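Backbone geometry:
***
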Amino acid sequence: QLQEQQEEIENMMNAVFKGVFVHRYRDVVPEIRAICMEELGTWMKSYAASFLTDGYLKYIGWTLHDKQREVRLQCVKALQGLYCCRETAAHMELFTSRFKVSGGPRGSPGVPAGCHRPRSPRQTRMVSMVLDKEPDVAVEVVKLLTLMLENMEEALTEEDCQSVYPVVYVSSRALASAAGLFLYRRLLDPQREAGREPTRDGDNRTFFRLLLAFFIESELHEHAAYLVDSLWDCAGPRLRDWETISALLLEESSTEGLADRQEKALVEILAASVVQVAEGQPPVGRGPAKKVTGL
């Protein structure tokens, strides 16, 4: 009897979905489309057995291309609720691999002059939205990718990650900070290696060596202040470890010391962190999330 009642309820839910949602998720009113995506995300979290399937997920995937900011934003937030834990993220494999697009993004917030963004010929829609023309959407997309990194790491290729790293240099601080956390979790966190013994000084030395490698490879040395500011919220205590920085700079290069290029870059990072502590303000040209045409 219980099984019959469950089947009856599911049939009712399916009828409501097909009779209402399937028509309204394409409504001409953006607010209605946004509500549909918000509620679909709630259904998937609350009733995963019924709704967390590819047959329902496809509606979020399609609507990620919506022209209206609020609709795309609700799609991304709905996905955040699904990728935020491994249990639900495990059901997202087909969805993650299915929605691919070619070409570039819709537009992006301003970046410092000289910052070149690598483009993948085939990026997931979610990765391409890192450079969404609306900064608040882009911020939530980077947060979504960070959740994917934590709970479904195999979903992101190295090429995908390479598309996110340069965002630490954009002029929107909210977006840059979100990208800074992604960069730290993916590339700079000394604890990411399994079985590593945590030691404060040793970890910080590893952190600075990883940071130097990234900074030098990005070839944007004039923008050390932007990089430091992007990492400040997630790695501020490490960046303020001037004792370790000094020790690294004083080591003889003939042993395990830094090369000249690394020393120069580390001095720039040191100077930027000192300014950050002294002034407590983002670097010139970086401000709150808003539409920016460029610097």
